Amino acid sequence: MCRRADTGSVAGMIEVAELTKRYGSTLAVDQLSFTVRPGQVTGFLGPNGAGKSTTMRTVLGLDNPTSGRTLVNGKRYAEIRWPLHEVGALLDAAAVHGGRRAADHLYCLARANRIGRARVTEVIEQVGLGGVARKRIGGFSLGMKQRLGVAAALLGDPGVLLFDEPVNGLDPEGIRWIRELMRALASEGRTVLVSSHLMSEMALTADHVLVLGRGRLVTETSMTDLLARFNRDVLVRTPRPAELSAALEAAGAVVLTDPDGALSVTGCDAVAIGDIAVRHGIAVHELTPRSASLEEAYLEITDESVQYRAGLEGSVR
Ligand SMILES: Nc1ncnc2c1ncn2[C@@H]1O[C@H](COP(=O)(O)OP(=O)(O)OP(=O)(O)O)[C@@H](O)[C@H]1O
């Protein structure tokens, strides 16, 4: 069961406030603010180099902000007495000591956080590594290392979890396992923040989405709203295209005629198009709302951010 820190209304929350991180002349994160809430999977989306890992590393106290702050359960990471009990993370699964045995790696972490050996056995079983617990990590596949990383993240039964690109390099079975795990953790009331550069991946896992572009928050929305925003047009097939086009245009729609005679209609939804056709006594053989693919939608959003920034750089500053 999920343990909760006694921190009032901020329990289970990740708060990023006005976070800026520079590496020399590189502005990795730029005045970034958002809050991640419990009980849902929050997707942290953005192209490579957008600043997702840097933000996560800062939340986990592995990097210091240039300015601004990050809080978990209302505290800076460094102020959390037994961190694994409050926040678990899977960052770079490959970054483990290959000479160690899997169980010993987890015992070390457990001891440092006052966690008993029984819990180590429990998480090893939970992630499906029971059969290789005494084996050296050096011989593990990436998928097994990923499972070991997840075991480490779950060790203290934390209410807040961060996963950085967790499906990278996994086989289909491993990918499904990670997705189901994240959904299960959120349904237990935990806060789950997961980064990805793939919109299609997020569509299958996330309830809520933060989109990052060049270190800035480009958009924050529910996955349902994001999908709805990218309804593109309605495909209409009719034996009387010229008459239906005229009727639709008279109602304010924009109508394009495809080479095969089908109509692409914007500015009018499928229901309104159907009603107009009936009013004019025109038969309709197909009426299909079309939306941009998720990847197209994502490219459109992140592209907007690039243009916006280019515009800014060329203006008042
Ligand atoms: N330790 C570092 N030193 C110098 N520059 C860095 C460092 N870490 C990140 N950066 C730079 O900061 C920017 C943001 O990188 P970051 O890894 O946070 O992005 P990301 O969205 O996680 O992308 P990716 O999916 O490729 O990891 C990039 O330009 C990157 O090159």
Automatic annotation (TrEMBL):
Any single Pfam family the record assigns to this protein: ABC_tran
Molecular function per GO: ATP binding; ATP hydrolysis activity
Signal peptide positions (record): none
Keyword Kinase on entry: no
Keyword vocabulary terms for this entry: ATP-binding, Nucleotide-binding, Transport
Domain ABC transporter: 14-239
PROSITE patterns xref list: ABC_TRANSPORTER_1 (PS00211), ABC_TRANSPORTER_2 (PS50893)
SUPFAM superfamilies cross-referenced by the UniProt entry: P-loop containing nucleoside triphosphate hydrolases (SSF52540)
PANTHER family given in the database record: ABC TRANSPORTER, ATP-BINDING PROTEIN (PTHR43335:SF4)
Protein family according to the UniProt entry: Belongs to the ABC transporter superfamily.
The protein's name in its UniProt record: ABC-2 type transport system ATP-binding protein
